[in-house]
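Input record, target 12 of the design panel.
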């Protein structure tokens, strides 16, 4: 007789805890991205250093992924527009990062090279 109410109570408390943890993760992700954006806007030579950019990229990627998953899992959430704006700002910062531009250019060149080579072998 008591098993059913205790089970329902456990499920309800699990849902509440999960919801609370999601909110905490999102709040931390938003705070990280906002602080990274402020740092990236500083007129400081350290901002342009490769080490600082990769360090920031590491934390920004994790935070952006948290928000992106929130958008995917809860597309009707009241804060989804704000998350989208913050994700857009983060993507723009990624594109301006000189370290990332260098790596992405290298990756593009590396990916196109094998393709050309396969085409040349097929024609020959």
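The sequence produced for target 12 reads:
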């Amino acid at each position: 007789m008591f098993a059913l109410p205790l089970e329902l109570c456990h499920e309800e408390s699990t849902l509440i805890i999960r919801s609370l943890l999601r909110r905490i993760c999102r709040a931390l992700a938003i705070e990280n991205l906002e602080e990274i954006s402020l740092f990236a806007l500083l007129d400081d030579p350290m901002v342009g250093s490769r080490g600082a950019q990769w360090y920031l990229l590491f934390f920004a990627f994790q935070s952006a992924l948290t928000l992106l998953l929130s958008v995917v899992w809860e597309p009707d959430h009241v804060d989804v527009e704000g998350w989208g704006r913050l994700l857009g700002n983060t993507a723009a910062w990624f594109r301006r990062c000189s370290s990332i531009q260098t790596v992405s250019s290298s990756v593009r060149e590396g990916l196109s090279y094998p393709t050309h080579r396969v085409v040349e072998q097929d024609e020959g």
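Residues 3-123 form one domain.
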